[in-house]
Amino acid sequence: MGITVAVVGAGIMGSAVARSLAQDTNKVIIDSDLDKAIALAEDIDGMSYAELSGAADADLIIVVIPPQIVNTTIKHLIDIVKSGAVIINMATNAITDPGDYVNSKNITVVDTKVIGHSVTIGGGMHGVVIVKTLDESIFNLIRSQLVGFKDVQKGDADLVAEINSIAVTEGLKTAIRISNKMQNDDIPEEWIKAALGSTCAGTIQAFANEELGHFARELVRKIENGEC
Questions:
Q1: Are 16 and 69 in contact (CB under 8 A)?
Q2: Distance from C-alpha of 127 to C-alpha of 121, rounded to nearest angstrom
Q3: Which of 6, 97, 190, 221 shows its CA 20 to 30 Å from the CA of 33?
Q4: How many CB atoms lie within 10 A of CB 218?
């Protein structure tokens, strides 16, 4: 039969997570917007549901929904899913307390967060998944299913919200500064978008992966020495 994984939430990040699942996994997509669930499920050869009851037979349930409804949704899932199931909360800004989900069905709730942006992750630049657990079997289950991500690691998932917040804030500051500077030089809007979306984004990606070319490495040296 294999492992069954249910993804609750068919938005941008939920879709990226669903597409990252292992090839031989039985996939279930749940979203209150059934059309969205159907479209994603058809894309990954899975089943679709509008109700949480669709997760009843899942071994792993991945909750990728707005933070304000995470707690209520998980409590409903505990009443629905089978004994021994693992529920992971992937909403970046929602931190769960295992003490809130004490149950007699041996169901485990684990905060699992993604360092990355939903748009780039959906575009194939998959981020790193941080799993907040010391249980090796639970970690191995999660890692065995999220194979499409760059890496899956054990660690303090609570830090991911701060990491993403810093990256987004500083990234936006840089994007706004670049845009304003180019607008002042009367550079066409479409050219500015290309510079931000390709040149700037690609340079940051190359810097992160230590793949900068000679020209960029020389700029890094000058920047670090305060020469520019």
A1: no
A2: 6
A3: 97
A4: 11
Predicted local confidence at residue 124, as pLDDT: 58
Q: Give how far Cα 99 sits from Cα of 96, 103, 116, 160, Å.
A: 9, 10, 28, 21
Q: How far is CA 116 from the centre of its chain?
A: 6
How far is it, in rounded angstroms, from Cα 12 to Cα 4? 21
Q: How far apart are CA 111 and CA 74, in angstroms?
A: 12
| CB proximity list for 221: less than 8 A, separation 6 or greater | none
Query: Quick one: tokens of 174?
Result: 């840089």
Q: What is the pLDDT of residue 150?
A: 87
**187-203: burial string, b at 16+ Cβ within 10 Å, e else:** eeeeebeebbeeebeee
Least confident of 78-92, 117-131, 214-228: 117-131
C-alpha 227/C-alpha 224 separation (Å) is: 8
Contact between 50 and 32 (Cβ < 8 Å): yes
Give the count of beta carbons closer than 10 Å to the beta carbon of residue 120.
14
DSSP 9: -
* Nearest CA-CA partner of 63 in 119, 99, 18: 18
CA angle 18, 22, 24 (to 5 degrees): 115
Contact (CB, 8 A) for 117 and 163 = no
Q: Other C-beta atoms within 10 Å of 70: how many?
A: 22
pLDDT of residue 181: 96
